[in-house]
Amino acid sequence: MERIILTGDRPTGKLHIGHYVGSLKMRKEMQDKGGYDKFYIEIADVQALTDNWDNPEKVRQNIIEVALDYLSIGLDPEKVTFFIQSQVKGLFELTCYYLDVVTLARLQRNPTIKSELKMRNFEGNIPMGFLTYPVSQAADITGFDATIIPVGDDQEPMIEQTREIVRSINNLYGETLFEPQAVLPENLVCRRLPGTDGNAKMSKSLGNCIYLSDDSETVRKKVMSMYTDPNHIRIEDPGKVEGNTVFTYLDAFSETSDFEKYLPEYKNLDDLKNAYKHGGVGDVKIKKFLYQVLEDELAPIREKRHYYEERIPEVYEILRKGTNDANKKCNEVVKRLEENMKINYFEDTELIKAQSMKYTPNGD
Ligand code: ATP
Ligand code: MG
C-alpha cells in the first residue's frame, strides 16, 4: 500500500499558532523526513462554505492567505500537492455516494459537530451542509487513498467517521477504499491549543488567536493581555500553573535552551513553574519570556511570508498545478468506486450484452 498523507484547513481566516503546533509543524517535519509516496494539502473551501454560505467573499479572500501561510512555514510545492477542494469535482460525487451509508443519528452523535453547532447557535436550525461535512471530509481523505492524516484532536471523530464509511463501502461493494489514521502531536497541549482568552480552543471563529502573520508588535500586545491566573494579583502571590494559558503556551513552544538565552535565573520550565506556584514571579515576566520564545519561532515565518506576498500570481499557479494533479488522482478513485458499484454503465460491455440477450436471446 502506498503511503499517502492528506490534511487541510478551512479558508475562514489566516492560520494561527494553534494550527502551527496542532498540525502545520508536523506537516513540515513529515515533508522533511520524506518516506511517503504523495502528500496532499487541501484548502477546504466547500467545508468553509457550510457555515459561511452567506459570505463566499470571505472564503474567496482567505484561500490565498492560507496558501501563503503554508509556504511561510516552509511547505514546499515540489514535495507537497496543494489544491482547492471545490475544484476537484470527484469529491462531490464521492460525498453523494457516502451519504447513502451514513445515518442522521450517527452524524448527530459526532462530538466535534455537537460543540460546533452549539458555538454557531445552529441547534434549532441545522444546515444540512454543515451537519454532513464529516461525510464530505471522508471523501477528501479517501478520494486520494490517503491513510496518514496529521491533525489536531478535534478531528479524531472525523477520522473515525471516515473509517466507518470505508468499512461500509468495502463491505457493500468489495475492497475499494483504505482506512485512515489520525496522526496527533506527541505533546498533549499541542493537540488543542487554547485561545489567548483561556477558551478551550484557539479558533479563527472565536477571535482568540495569535496569527502566524501577526507583526511583532501585535504578538507582543496579544501576549501581554493574555489570560493567566485571575487570583495572582501581586508578584508575591502564589500562582496557578494549570489552566494558565501563558504556561500552556510555554509547554507548547519553549525549550530548555530558551531559558539560558532569555531567563537564565531558571533552569527550565519546571523550575519556573515551581517558582510561580510559590509566589514571587510576576505575570509580566512570564509574558515577556513567552513573547521572546514566540518571536524566535515566528520571525522567520513572517519573513518567508513577505517573500511570497510579493509573488501572488506564482502562488495561484502553485494552487492551479496542485489542483490539476489532485483531480487526476481523485478521478481514479471515483472510477474505481463506480466500477465496484457497477454503475459504470457505458464501459460495462458485459451489461450491454446481457441486456441485449434478455430481449433478443437469438441475437436478432
Ligand atoms: P474554524 O474556526 O473556521 O473551524 P479552526 O481554527 O478550527 O477554524 P480549521 O481549519 O478548522 O481551523 O482546522 C485546521 C486544522 O488545524 C485541523 O487539523 C485542526 O485540528 C487544527 N487546529 C485548529 N485549531 C487548533 C488548535 N487550537 N490547537 C491544535 N490544533 C488546531
Ligand atoms: Mg475548525
Roughly how many Å is the radius of gyration? Answer: 24 Å
Structural class: mainly alpha
- Give the bound compounds: adenosine-5'-triphosphate, magnesium ion
Most strands sheet: 3 strands, parallel
Give the % helix.
40-55%
N/C terminus separation:
48 Å
Q: CATH superfamily assignment of the largest domain? A: HUPs
Number of domains: 2
CATH architecture of the largest domain: 3-Layer(aba) Sandwich
Measured by DSSP, the beta-strand proportion falls in: 5-15%
- Low-pLDDT parts are none
- Give, in order, the helices and strands: EHEHHEHHHHHEHEHHHHHHH
Sheet with most strands: strand arrangement: 1-2-3
| Count of DSSP-assigned helices | 16
Number of strands: 5
- Approximate shape: elongated
Mean pLDDT: 96
List keywords for this structure.
single chain; mainly alpha; Rossmann fold; Tyrosyl-Transfer RNA Synthetase; 3-stranded parallel sheet; 16 helices; 55% helix; binds adenosine-5'-triphosphate
